[in-house]
Amino acid sequence: MLYLVGLGLSDETDITVKGLEIVKKASRVYLEAYTSILLVDQAVLEKYYGRSIVIADREMVESQSDDILANAQTEDVAFLVVGDPFGATTHTDLVLRARELSIPVSSVPNASIMSGIGACGLQLYNFGQTVSMVFFTDNWRPDSFYDRVKENRDIGLHTLVLLDIKVKEPNLESLARGRIVYEPPRYMTVGTCASQMLEVEEKRKEDVYSEDSLAIGAARVGGRDQVFVAGTLRELCDADERLGLPLHSMVLLGRRTHELENDFVRDFAVDKEKWQRLWESEYQNKQ
Amino acid sequence: MLYLVGLGLSDETDITVKGLEIVKKASRVYLEAYTSILLVDQAVLEKYYGRSIVIADREMVESQSDDILANAQTEDVAFLVVGDPFGATTHTDLVLRARELSIPVSSVPNASIMSGIGACGLQLYNFGQTVSMVFFTDNWRPDSFYDRVKENRDIGLHTLVLLDIKVKEPNLESLARGRIVYEPPRYMTVGTCASQMLEVEEKRKEDVYSEDSLAIGAARVGGRDQVFVAGTLRELCDADERLGLPLHSMVLLGRRTHELENDFVRDFAVDKEKWQRLWESEYQNKQ
């Protein structure tokens, strides 16, 4: 059996009891470690599980999936995924390959950022499609997220923005010299996300949002020290210090809001009076 | 401290290790039992936790929240919620009341149907807003869901439909005679949902979807015996036997699809050839 086990969002104790039992009994345990991270190290997990785990990077999952699945017709293999196995990153390819090999598959769900973000106080019913924000480079500044945000905003819905992480990226200079040296990991902050969003609005000028649009920055959602900072996009450009360590994510508000959402979220505002003023003029009873 | 603890979707072992530790230590434990249910009984939970729990019905949560919160400034109170505490049903009112009483609040996330539905193989990125379907009665057949589905379909997105449950509903005849007798619980099936959806399309005639629209019925998502049945809305009207026991939910597909989603989902189809034909003519490469 191939078990896809969600680890939840924060630390080693966020695994479910069902998931932990599977991890303890499986023949081999892999940890998918390139699309998200827990806030604890591999060593902490290994100690907690009482066994060693194999870190599965993108290369391994995409090119060597048959190694992961070896003998899973008769043995139990656990494939651990931060969040939920079918959440922000789905591992449908691995499941499809398992089906081809007649390997039974079972999944153990857990909290995903796509539902965990509800802890900010906005109702999940009022969210539209989720978008991703990648790190802009000198010559790659993709703005397709802007069209998706526009679709959500046009019908009044909130948008969850998931922020890029770069782990195990080869250093290009070394690569050119024939050596593989990995860059230190990078995690996008809310500040970077907000400023990239404003840059794209500046370029596209379709009034999808503005510096004064209300948004919520989130850090370490689901962790004991999760932090939410609410403010305008301009304010969130400078909120990284308040938010602290990774992982960050963000929500851009839509106009279809409920007064209870405001009561809850205002408490997180950088500037409560400004938040309330913008809420009343731009959001309240607008749809 | 008030702890909101998510229980996940299926049985007693879906609680996280972190959540279980809190339940074992708290002074009092409440189980919110009117917006969703686990697939196991209270007695199973109590045995598993090694302690008694208080069932909190709607009346208690909405009108007697101060009893739930009593002394939580100094004691730990655990409030258990099926799924995620901020998922399909949010308990923001309880948190806001706790804030007023200067009670610190902590939440333990878990799988929600709103992310767990990803196990059907559709990418959560391609979902629009979630809608709810209530049991139609002779004189109450609300169709506001139809407008939401239309918004999603217009931009090619999938729609998760959450199905009504009725627990602890008073029998109206007895009530008129001054006695409170509760009806047996009722859980909407995919068949009822699909036929109510077709009824509303028939009435509104805005071509939001049709009998041949593709959809997925889901039963006991997150459980060891979860079942998905894929088919047209007409086919899903008759799929209750294949789906089996509650809880059910449903997804209506949008046109913004990925070939990998089809590869995954087709396996669940009532009629694979028909599914493939409709997929190719109505969905594939349409957006």
Second CATH tier, the architecture of the largest domain in chain A: 2-Layer Sandwich
Q: Output the number of helix runs of chain A.
A: 13
- Domain module count of chain A: 2
Strand order of the largest sheet of chain A: 3-2-4-1-5
> What level of helicity do the residues of chain A show?
25-40%
How large a portion of the residues of chain A is in β-strands, by DSSP E?
A: 15-25%
Radius of gyration of chain A: 21 Å
Interface with most residues: A-B, 57 and 57 residues
Structural class of chain A: alpha/beta
Average per-residue pLDDT of chain A, rounded, comes to 94
| CATH superfamily membership of the largest domain in chain A | Tetrapyrrole methylase, C-terminal domain
Subunit arrangement of the protein:
homodimer
Tell me, what's the shape of chain A?
A: globular
CATH fold group of the largest domain in chain A: Methyltransferase, Cobalt-precorrin-4 Transmethylase, Domain 2
Biggest sheet features of chain A: 5 strands, parallel
Distance between the termini of chain A: 49 Å
Low-pLDDT ranges of chain A = none
CATH class of the largest domain in chain A: Alpha Beta
Number of strands of chain A: 12
- Which series of helices and strands of chain A comes N to C? EHEHEHHEHEHEHEEHEHEEHHEHH
Pathway (chains A, B): Protein modification; peptidyl-diphthamide biosynthesis
Keywords (chains A, B): Methyltransferase, S-adenosyl-L-methionine, Transferase
GO molecular function, one term (chains A, B): diphthine methyl ester synthase activity
Catalytic activity (chains A, B): 2-[(3S)-amino-3-carboxypropyl]-L-histidyl-[translation elongation factor 2] + 4 S-adenosyl-L-methionine = diphthine methyl ester-[translation elongation factor 2] + 4 S-adenosyl-L-homocysteine + 3 H(+)
